[in-house]
């Protein structure tokens, strides 16, 4: 039995960690470390520990740790990661008694990852470092590499210690055929919408309200954050045009977690009462196979919906908006378009349509 440590910062990563534990890691001793980068992460961790999904589940208050450092602290951590048995990130592991692991999985390759690896490598010099996906938009798997990281790796090798990239060989993902990097891929099975184990776990840890009847809505609209930020791109106006054509009763709005506007309620369109829960968990607890997900720029429609066995149809209508007015959206939409095209070229993601006109949106049934 291998001992595996998985770090998760987002709800998607937590769900994927659960899927790996239920499938490819079912015979392994797995510890899940959940950071406070997502809302209610401490409560989610407690509930997972109570359900004993993993052999151990620990909560790590790491948000802001990478950035809130003085120059003196940065210099100290640099040398500790190279030479020491402990460093600034030792507290990540304080609730883990047995620190011998065969493999550790991260999504982000940052300075804290280097710090944790340097500690765990003291317990197992052959510790394997692996990464895993964060949705289909993460398959390029490009990590920031700095001169500091290069020096850490170089100096560790000089004193006979392993460097993190020396043992970095695997990328866990749902679509291995779509990965073009240098790592060896390990396939994560698609999530079955009829998997009662997964549904029960997610309903418990995220407190999903099962009273919402999603089947009654033909369209589920995913709000972006730009209206709240005062940088609207016209998505609300397009949604109202859709409502005029299909009827307000056929549309449900999934609000952005940080949204503070009440446009949709004022216009008589229903808003999901589960809006505080991650939609990935909501979808896996409801039959949405006949629903159409509609969004201008929300990546949520491409997350779990792309790794379930019965995905809903997706309409992305950013070409109809003023997304060009926001520089980061120009980069994001270009990336989305490229990824969707690449997947569809290989026979995947046929349920996704990037529409070029409003009439094209209405044609999708």
Topology:
Blueprint lengths: L2 E6 L2 H12 L6 E7 L5 H11 L4 E5 L10 H13 L19 E4 L4 H10 L7 E5 L14 H12 L9 E6 L10 E4 L8 H10 L13 E4 L12 H12 L4 E4 L8 H4 L3 E2 L7 H5 L8 E4 L17 E4 L10 H19 L6 E3 L3 H6 L2
Parallel strand pairs: 1-2, 1-4, 2-3, 4-5, 5-6, 6-7, 8-9, 8-11, 9-10, 11-12, 12-13
Describe the structure concisely.
This protein has 365 residues and is α/β, with parallel strands linked by helices.
Question: Please, could you describe this protein's structure?
Answer:
Helices cover 31% and strands 16% of the residues. It has 365 residues and is of the alpha/beta class. It contains 11 helices and 13 strands. Strand 9 (251-254), helix 8 (263-266) and strand 10 (270-271) form a beta-alpha-beta unit. The termini are far apart. The chain has 2 domains: 3-187, Rossmann fold; 210-363, 3-Layer(aba) Sandwich (Rossmann fold), CATH 3.40.50. The strands form 2 sheets. The protein has a 7-stranded parallel sheet with strand order 3-2-1-4-5-6-7, covered by helices on one side. The model has no long low-confidence stretch (mean pLDDT 90). Helix 3 (71-83) packs parallel to helix 5 (147-158). The chain has helices at 11-22, 41-51, 71-83, 111-120, 147-158, 196-205, 235-246, 263-266, 279-283, 327-345, 358-363; strands spanning 3-8, 29-35, 56-60, 103-106, 128-132, 168-173, 184-187, 219-222, 251-254, 270-271, 292-295, 313-316, 352-354.
